[in-house]
Amino acid sequence: MLRPTVDLGVTRHGLVRRRDFMKTLGGAGAAAGTLSLGWHDMLLASAESLRKRGKSMILLWMDGGPSQYDTFNPKIGSQYQGPARAISTAVPGVVFADFWPQMASEMGRLAVIRSMLSSEAEHDRAITLVRTGYPPTVAVRYPTFGSIVAMKREAEEIDLPSFVRIGKPRIATRDVDSGVLGTRYSSFNIDRAGTLPPNVRPSAPADVLRRRLALTSQLDSQFAVAGGADEVARKSDVYQRTSRFVLSPRLNTFNLDEEPDSLRDAYGRSDFGQGCLLARRLVEQGVSFVEVISTGGRNDAGWDTHGNGFRDQPHLCAEADSACATLLRDLADRGKLDDTLVVWMGEFGRTPRIKPDGGRDHYPKGWLTVMAGGGVSGGQVIGATDFDGVDVVDRPISVQDLCVSFCRVLGINPRDEYHTTDARPIKLVDGGEVIPELFS
Amino acid sequence: MLQHTRPGFFCLTNRVLKFAVLAAGFAGAGSAGTGAVFAAEPVEAPRPVQRQVEHSLTSGQLDSLVLQELDEIDDFQLAGDEEFLRRASFDLIGRPPTVEELTEFLSAPTVDRREHAINRLLLDPAWGTTQAIYWSDTISFRVPPPELTFLDYRPLKKWLATELNEGTPWDRIVADLLTGTGEVATHPDATFVAYHQGNPTKLAAETARIFLGVQIQCAECHDHPFDHWKREQFHQLAAFFVRSKVKMPWNEGPKTVVSDAGKGEYRMPDAMDPRKKGAEMPPAFLAGNPVGTGRSDLERRRELATLLTAPENPWFAKSTVNRLWAQLMGRGFYDPVDDLSAAQVQHLPAVHEALTAEFIRSGFDVRHIVRLIVGTRAYQQSLATSGEQERPLFAAARTGRLPGDAVYDALLTALELPDVRPPTPKPTAAIRFPVPPKSTRETFAAIFGYDPSLSPAHRMRNMDQAMLLMNGKQLQQQIDSRPDSGTILAGLLQEESDNAKAIHQLFLIVLARAPTLAEARLCLAHVEQAESRGAGFEDLLWSLINSAEFTTRR
Asked: In this structure, are A423 and A375 located in the same domain?
């Protein structure tokens, strides 16, 4: 359900105070009904500025590497298929594994890439490649894509983080972060949708906190004159951003209790389902990049189904199916799908060969990504693997192609450069070409 | 000129016949110091012998050298006593002075109170700990987290602290780090090799970067674009580590162990075709000649340690001194401190060379070099205030954000913030590798931590730090004026009924200095306008902890 925010609206800079908003509306309106101006009016009035701010991206991360055979590229008739059957989708001729009935009915919105090709088959190396766009190296800690978006979209006055991650990665030590971009562009992490991390909620009532912040900045002014000007400038910048955030009325965005039960149920009451719901709330408020991690509630196994594939696949898929499909419908219902690129992927796929219990090992050939929204043309399959799903036979797509295409949707030039701490210039994405089918 | 000798340790048998060749290959290599010693058998364990040690440089001479190179100023403007003590305390023992230490210092005779304070701080066991944290962070910040386990640097820090406090020469410590073997928990000197998982290319890159200030890692894939390093040289360096085998705990039991793989030679990957079996590379140290293949893991690593720590190695002493200068002066002769390549600007070259020669002459005595630098007027300078003309590099003290452990220790000193460690969760079927929870100290160390190799400009201030200081629950509990809370603030308010005096005291406790007149007035006005005395002082304490100065070394 929608409710009015207290005094903020989003502009291309991210935010205006209500007072400034009144100014933009002009004198005539301000004279009469503006005091009762509701959320809906503000939403309409700020829709244009939201558009200028650019599109958002939600990355649905299937941590551990999902199986092609049990998701969006079943190989019916192949010795490698396993028990998952095929179901038809909204697009004639395209079939999914039958664990995905809801996504099948959303096929009209989806672009399914079945020909991802990379060379990394170990989790940490593959995660580095897929999430940063660069192969792993000891020389540079490349930033995760969300940090790049956060850097390119940094807005002076925004009171919410630009990059939010929901859910814990399957194995903490395999994580990639903002790397050489530094903590300024690292993700704001929500371990579990519906809770805020420690230290966000103010330790004192807002008026007390404001009073203290005023006193501390007076003390800082004294130190600035006494030789501390550089440190004070850096500190003030961070404290301004931090206090805007912890005192923001929009912290309520993180609270899911405002959503109707029926919708929460539709997403699924799993961590991932509720995480997807939170992701929608965040992009609605102008957050640029949201990552939602799916592990099936099993922290260190997730989609890494070396064993017990027959047992675990139906559960993992069911949880993701309702969450992903509901997210797409919900965004579309709110008119936000065209402004939001939704991407479903993991670090690689799984081997054709099946173990007796349905387990499959890592496989970086012919793995999948699914894209929707953000202007991407739905209802299409891009690329193909052979009858058994062993080799890519049509339209091999690289991780770099994917990253360049993300940039295209987000309006970011992939050849822009940033500098590492030792002043070495690095392109946002090195190599790769836009996948034209996505935009035709 | 001050000259004396003291007993030291010298790994006699580790010095081998490579120096002449090696030194000939080094452009501009200095040959001061203890000189080469030949050994028939390079693999025997090191044994202690008397080491001839000289101290011949003074802080005064160092000052003259700095002034000679700084045309713009005739002398240094000294910082006040309070500022000096806080700076030296943070730099040497990683925390601010207590009110007692400050009072004692200010009541000591003016003429040599700073010298006395420096001596006291250098003999404090926290000196070794503070250095140990610096070097451990230098290593750990670039170690990628391994799969399915968590690296514990506490044994390394403890070992380094003990060695440094006992005055073990730096060449010995580094040699131990390069040759350490066995189980990490009981042989912390094996940490460096162990936590790089015995990976020869990572170890080659990090050995050169950390201990030599040499950036050779680009040469892993191609000849260095603007330095003279060749691909072969990088891979020859890696060959010293090719037989180091490391078991990590996840599938080999609970221990991390370094051992000898027993066989194998290093192969440089074929640049044109990575599928081909690359050329075999014998170990060789940078510009030096290759040493033979077929040697054991320890033979190789001891050979490397000997060559790397030799006085004739032009980078070892120079890069160490550069790091020590940067720790204390806020910026290295070279910046960043891990890149001494010819393409970089070297500031105050004569000072850098004099300190390097002194470090070698002193038998690689870290404490001696630190004492020399802290004793200079250059170190004890004031900050450039905003009204005055900008002063050139090293003609004013530099501010810098405190490292993570120092932020915690500042809170421990000011607020008695307790160090609490939550219970470790037990592994379950769903979560087999639970993240070990951080103690209070570790939380601050992680959130405020920075890579010591980065230029000071990259010591970020960020929102996580701000939220921790603004809202952290445990910290806020110490900002409680209620008489029964047992906090320092409550005690102060009970003892001192006069607001102005209590404000004065709170500044001493938190910032280790008296307030200026303007600050005293400002704070008094705030306290007197507040709804209660307690609320006013809670605001003040919160504001002091959250001030830029509190987390700044000035």
From this structure: yes
